[in-house]
Write a structure and sequence with these properties.
Helix 3 packs antiparallel against helix 4. 81% of the residues lie in helices and 0% in strands. The protein is flat, with a radius of gyration of 21 Å. It folds into 2 domains: 32 residues; 72 residues, no CATH class. By secondary structure, it is mainly α.
């Protein structure tokens, strides 16, 4: 790729990203009420995305050995318990990730 071509690609990506970010503000300006469908999607989509992430993360788990599923099971339990206890998604995901990495790198070598 030439240097000029790279700058064109970056400019197009920046323009598309900015357009997608500003489009809802242009379509739903402050004077009109947000449609009910959009409000419902705003309430439902975060849970759907989290469900998809759980399925994606657990799709490659192997149940043929303890090393295959036990670290994942323990990390999932840590995430679930921390979320129920603290009600903080970020803390529970970070702690579950750290727990999984410690288990995989140190305990189940």
């Amino acid at each position: 790729m030439t240097d000029l071509h790279t700058w064109y690609v970056i400019a197009v990506i920046a323009l598309v990203t900015a357009t997608l970010r500003f489009l809802p503000f242009m379509v739903f300006n402050g004077s009109s009420k947000t449609p009910g469908m959009i409000e419902k999607l705003g309430k439902v989509l975060p849970y759907a995305i989290m469900g998809m992430l759980v399925v994606y993360c657990l799709k490659g788990v192997s149940f043929t050995s303890m090393d295959g599923f036990l670290p994942t099971l323990i990390a999932c339990l840590v995430v679930g318990i921390l979320y129920v206890w603290k009600r903080n998604t970020l803390i529970s995901i970070v702690a579950g990730t750290v727990c999984y990495m410690v288990l995989v790198q140190v305990v189940f070598v």
